[in-house]
Design goal:
single chain; kinase; transferase; transmembrane helix; transmembrane; membrane
Length: 151
């Protein structure tokens, strides 16, 4: 049987490939940059919504337990990030640049600040690495877009 930590790390790293592939495609096949950026933000929304969904099972387990966060706060956090993921898709590209970069940063900050007690010790270290790679990809796509299209 594979350890949960090892499986989560493998899946987390695999989840980075579409981000990295989209960034690489900007340089390898720049004629498809508009399509690559569109898919990049669709994937960003999906991952943000997926990560926000992690808070729901925590909320359901909190009902009869004594933890620092109430189930209401945990569920609201989940929904806030889910809505941000969806609304971000409706924004122009410069809005997406800002929304998704800040949302991934905020999601990690919530995990570190308010959700730390729920995660195993290895989880936040893994999340830091994954978040930094995602943010680097977000900023690279942003720079590419701004250099190509201006503000």
């Amino acid at each position: 049987m594979i350890a949960v930590a090892r499986l989560a790390i493998v899946v987390g790293i695999a989840g980075l490939f579409p981000f990295i592939a989209a960034v690489a495609s900007l340089f390898l096949v720049p004629q498809y940059s508009v399509t690559a950026i569109s898919w990049f933000y669709v994937y960003s929304a999906g991952i943000l919504a997926f990560m926000a969904g992690v808070y729901w099972p925590i909320a359901m387990q909190l009902e009869n337990c004594s933890y620092p966060q109430s189930p209401l706060v945990t569920m609201v956090l989940s929904q806030v990030f889910f809505v941000i993921a969806g609304v971000g898709l409706l924004l122009p590209t410069l809005g997406q640049v800002l929304v998704y970069s800040l949302a991934f940063l905020a999601l990690y900050a919530v995990d570190v600040r308010w959700m730390r007690v729920y995660w195993p010790s290895w989880y936040l270290r893994m999340r830091l690495v994954l978040t930094l790679v995602v943010l680097a990809c977000q900023l690279t796509v942003a720079a590419w877009y701004i250099l190509l299209h201006g503000t």
